[in-house]
Amino acid sequence: MLICFGLLTTAIFGFGIPKPGPDGRFPAEENHFWRVMLGFPIVICLIRSFFLLIRYKHETPSFLARKRGIEVARMAVSELYRDEFINDELGMLASGGDGGDNASFLDQFNDRNRGPLMVGILLMIFQQISGINAVMFFSNKIFKGSADQPVSETTATLYTTMTMLLNFGACFITSAIIDKAGRKIILLVGGVFVTFFLALLALFNHRGEADLARYCVLAYVLAFAISWGPVPWVMVGEVLSGKGGSIATLVNWLFCIMVVQSLPYVEESEIGINGAFIFYMICMVVALLYTQLYVKETKGLSKEQINRIFSNLPKDLKEP
User: Fold this and answer.
1) How far apart are CA 26 and CA 10, in angstroms?
2) Whole-model pTM above 0.85?
């Protein structure tokens, strides 16, 4: 949610950036808005440092429980949880429910952990090859319109801000429904809409129908932000240990880099940006098939139950 809020903030800052003139050059007069753009993150970092040094100055409860004992961990738990939940959290830590962080990185690939790790990694891969970052980065061109249907820089920035606002607002929708509907059904239903709007985006952008392409971008981002944006992160936190989650996160960023860095070359190739959208659509179809066959529902399950289900995953493809 905070990441989405940060993206929304950057989009709002776009209104303050000076616009180029008819010749494509920026105005010669000095503009001080860059000071605001650089100063704002500095303020945020100072606020974060204050909370880390003064308010939340302890290590994580699981780390303290492993290294210094459960009573030392109580201080950290009391700062994070309300009184009625402290004993339950301490009980889980005392029973070893720390997500398996005592295991090494190599242990994440053993027979017991390989199934959950592959689920987490593949969810992260599918999240990136759904094309979300490609659509986000190319959306500015779509929002500006074609040569015969151009819009102003301010209007394009407004569309971008609307996109980020939908992205942020969808977090609240997901938070409200994820424990009621379940993780898997949100991935499946959301994935269908993501696939559908990717297909329409490729079609309308190919035809040069700028207005319809803009609406498809907004609808695609909303569908993704409700489903394949947050839910894989939720499931990685539930299914994997801290070390396993770090491996899945690394894979996520590697594929993010691959998608982003390859996009300019794909756009200039014979495939074109619309071909890329079709490719991402096909990837989402594969993601839907994988989710239906391999991903298990974790709603309402304890950590032990989740580990038991996913550890048997390679041998048992049926629903529990």
Assistant:
1) 20
2) no
